[in-house]
Write a structure and sequence with these properties.
The structure holds two protein chains of two kinds. By secondary structure, chain A is an alpha/beta fold. Chain A is 34% helix and 17% strand. Chain A is built from eight helices and 13 strands. In chain A, the strands form four sheets. In chain A, strands 2-1-6-9-11 form a five-stranded parallel β-sheet, sandwiched between helices. A three-stranded antiparallel β-sheet of chain A has the order 3-4-5. In chain A, strands 10-13-12 form a three-stranded mixed β-sheet, with no helix packed on it. The termini of chain A are close together. Chain B is of the alpha/beta class. Chain B has one domain. Helix content of chain B is 37%, strand content 12%. Chain B contains eight helices and eight strands. In chain B, helix 2 runs parallel beside helix 4. The radius of gyration of chain B is 19 Å and the shape is globular. Chains A and B meet through helix 3, strand 8 and helix 4 of A and helix 3 of B.
Chain lengths: 264, 291
């Protein structure tokens, strides 16, 4: 039996839902899910081997969302950090004003100098993305946790945005549509996976890419894995708003757990 | 100048999500394009000619341990690039963006720093750094040291001006001479003699050129920083970097002279960063080689 502790922000809800909705699906695993919104996972310290909240808000979150009064680190064989702002959308934001040579659209453009975005090297894009990810909660918490334990720590990103955005017109997801139109989605996905794996390894973690069968066109999550996602609440009884494009559902969570089980 | 409302051109602007420290490593945000450093009038003249008429030359790509660098700006990619074609691809883009920018430029400001440079005999191009310092390999049969004379600098300034006016016939040229002394010389002279010689040559050539050429001007930053009569010298304790106070005095002078500062702000311009730009000067690389 491998004892797992899952940490995360709102995205840990998908994994918790998946676990709850598929009892017995992973007989070799036991799991505890510890959620905390915003940066509350960082408001903790190692007190005699127990990850203990140091603020009232963190204590409240732990008490309501699976952490109790603290997490006994010795009680687990491995840890998983879910979501926590490690998202492919960091690349889609970068794409707004930087292009790098791996993007196929660059090589079909008739006049690169006319592009609004600037051409940079692959290394510049990777360095920028790595720097950006480094500041995200997932990597910060990985470093924090790594100081407290030498057991394996897995990091799984937020799901890619829902494929539902294809038919939307809102400016927040315009970069996704531009990337798809340009035929650059595979290269965008590659850059994210490379940067996330590299920086996770730099801090002693193991990056778990999004399960391939949940991905659509490289940068989207297929709708069956997003529809009906739950919010991270004490009783997991509230749904994400209908317009939510960022959170996975129980089916998504189950895929991630299965992928993890195969890696252990 | 940005704070004063000048519309500074930038052919290759720093992407918004790129942090400053990475941007500077990759040559963004320092000048009006990712030039690397341009120290000599000849280098600038050749670059402008390349922008106007040339194509990237594969002979000017340096290889070191499987990585490739643009010999004309070897420091803008800290780890080099993967192939010769990639270097040429980036250089082609660099030239095209600079061409666009120059066509929209009203005033071009250029600071002359050095008179000595290494040249590449087969291509005839002037290099910003000695091969081997930041890529490439020195080959005495291929690379030669050249110390530009007053006459050569004057001719190069004329080429610069004429070429700029091919992009915009009304473009004006403002020149300055860098007060930063040389930290090394390949001439065999003492570095202080070489430094004085270089600065005297540049200052004299710029003076003669501006006097004789309408549509040009000179910003006396060299004098403000180096001369006691201007309250200087305004150097940092290492006697090389210009102090923030010195930069502030120069900018006050420039902005006031060009009516770019409201009178109330004339004595309150923002202090510059202390030597941040200098960390990107190629001469630091040379220093490390001298150790």
């Amino acid at each position: 039996m491998t004892r797992l502790c899952f940490f995360g922000n709102s995205h840990v809800a998908a994994l918790r839902s998946g676990w709850m909705e598929h009892p017995g699906a992973w007989p070799s695993l036991s799991a505890q899910f510890v959620g905390a919104h915003k940066g509350l996972l960082l408001e903790t310290e190692n007190k005699n081997g127990t990850l203990t909240p140091t603020t009232r808000n963190a204590s409240d979150a732990f008490a309501k969302l699976g952490g109790g009064t603290g997490v006994d680190l010795a009680a687990f064989d491995a840890f998983v950090i879910a979501g926590c702002q490690v998202a492919l959308s960091r690349v889609t934001t970068l794409y707004r004003d930087l292009r790098w040579p791996d993007l196929p659209s660059l090589h079909t453009s008739e006049n690169l100098a006319e592009m609004t975005a600037v051409l940079g090297s692959q290394a510049a894009a990777l360095a920028t993305l790595t720097y950006t990810l480094n500041a995200r909660l997932g990597l910060q918490f990985l470093r924090h946790l790594r100081e407290m334990t030498d057991k394996p720590i897995y990091l799984t990103s937020q799901p890619r945005a829902s494929a539902a955005l294809r038919s939307m017109k809102d400016p927040n997801t315009a970069s996704h549509r531009a990337i798809l139109r340009a035929g650059d989605a595979a290269a965008v996905s590659d850059l994210f996976e490379t940067a996330a794996a590299r920086i996770t390894a730099d801090f002693g973690g193991i990056f778990l890419p999004q399960p391939a069968d949940t991905i659509e066109d490289h940068i989207l999550t297929a709708k069956p894995f997003m529809t009906g996602a739950k919010r991270l609440t004490e009783h997991m009884d509230a749904a994400q708003p209908k317009e939510d494009l960022r959170h996975g559902n129980a089916a998504y969570g189950a895929k991630v757990i299965s992928q993890l089980a195969a890696r252990l | 100048m940005r704070l004063a409302g000048c519309a500074l051109q930038d052919a290759e602007p720093q992407p918004r999500t790129m942090p400053d420290e990475i941007a500077h490593e990759f040559g963004y945000g320092l000048y009006s394009g990712r030039y690397g450093n341009i120290y000599t009038a000849r280098q600038m003249a050749e670059l402008l000619t390349e922008i106007a008429d040339g194509d990237p030359d594969p002979a000017l790509v340096w290889e070191n341990r499987g990585r490739y660098r643009d010999a004309l700006r070897p420091t803008v990619e800290p780890s080099g690039l993967g192939t010769i074609d990639e270097v040429l691809f980036h250089r082609g883009y660099h030239l095209a963006r600079l061409s666009q920018m120059l066509q929209q430029t009203d005033v071009f400001i250029f600071t002359l720093g050095l008179t000595e440079a290494w040249q590449d005999r087969p291509t005839g191009r002037t290099l910003p750094l000695c091969p081997g310092v930041a890529g490439g390999k020195f080959d005495a049969g291929r690379h030669n040291l050249h110390v530009f004379t007053h006459r050569e600098v004057l001719a190069d300034l004329a080429t610069i001006y004429q070429t700029l006016r091919r992009f915009n016939p009304a473009m004006e040229l403002i020149l300055t001479v860098s007060p930063v002394p040389l930290t090394a010389t390949a001439t065999g002279n003492h570095v202080m003699l070489a430094s004085t010689h270089a600065k005297a040559t540049l200052r004299s050539a710029v003076g003669d050129f501006v006097t004789a050429t309408p549509g040009t001007d000179y910003i006396p930053s060299y004098e403000v920083i180096t001369q006691a009569g201007c309250g200087g010298p305004w150097f940092a304790p290492n006697l090389r970097e210009v102090s923030p106070k010195g930069v502030e005095r120069v900018m006050d002078m420039v902005l006031t002279a060009h009516d770019l500062l409201p009178p109330d702000d004339a004595t309150h311009s923002r202090p510059s960063d202390d030597g941040e730009d200098d960390a990107h000067c190629d001469e630091i690389l040379l220093e490390s080689f001298a150790q």
